[in-house]
Amino acid sequence: MAPSALRADAERNRRRLVDAALAVFSERGLDAPLDDIARRAGLGNATLYRHFPVRRDLIAAVYAETLDEIVATAERATAEPDAWTAFRDHLVYLCGVQSRCRATSDLLTAAVAGVPGLDALHERAYQGLQVLIERAQAAGELRADFRHEDVVLILMSNAGLIERTAEAAPDAWRRQLAYTLDGLRAPGRTPAPPSPGVARVVDAMRERGRRFSGEPAQGHHAS
Length: 223
Prior knowledge:
Blueprint: H1 3-28, H2 34-41, H3 45-51, H4 55-77, H5 83-100, H6 102-108, H7 116-138, H8 148-165, H9 172-184, H10 198-213
Helix pairs in contact: 1-2, 1-4, 4-5, 4-7, 5-6, 5-7, 5-8, 5-9, 6-8, 8-9
């Protein structure tokens, strides 16, 4: 084959692998067997590993655009004049994203190491959400003891609920989230237990992320 034909063939195979990974990850999560992805694409494992030597490379190829849209949605939310509405609607949006795709749900609650593009998107998403939190607190609408890491805890809880009700009651998460949001309003709140802190939540995200990146498990080291 001529070099141009070889390049075109390689790009077709890459596209088939990305499309297959999107389908398999969506169904089974980011730790789905890579063999299943190659099989879904109709290609051999050697072709998959030639294009994507490690799992995180494939994750980055499949989900960079999705995370970019999440970041853009957070940034658009800051234009909403009502601070509580902006915060509430974005949290509902994130939980809805989880309900539509199991792999995206994994990405929102795990820190997959070694993917610079995804790392940068996570940081932008963090900053956008932090703005929404601070605005709602400054307006006196969101309880003052709420922290960014509490969003991760809500998303982790929502992921478990979605997984357990996906077949029988796929919209159950909406009811649970409505109760959660009522508990986040500043008026009439009752004291919450102490936050576990950013470090411990990040440790939990990293521990989960190691399942997807192929890194060995490590002990927690948060203070």
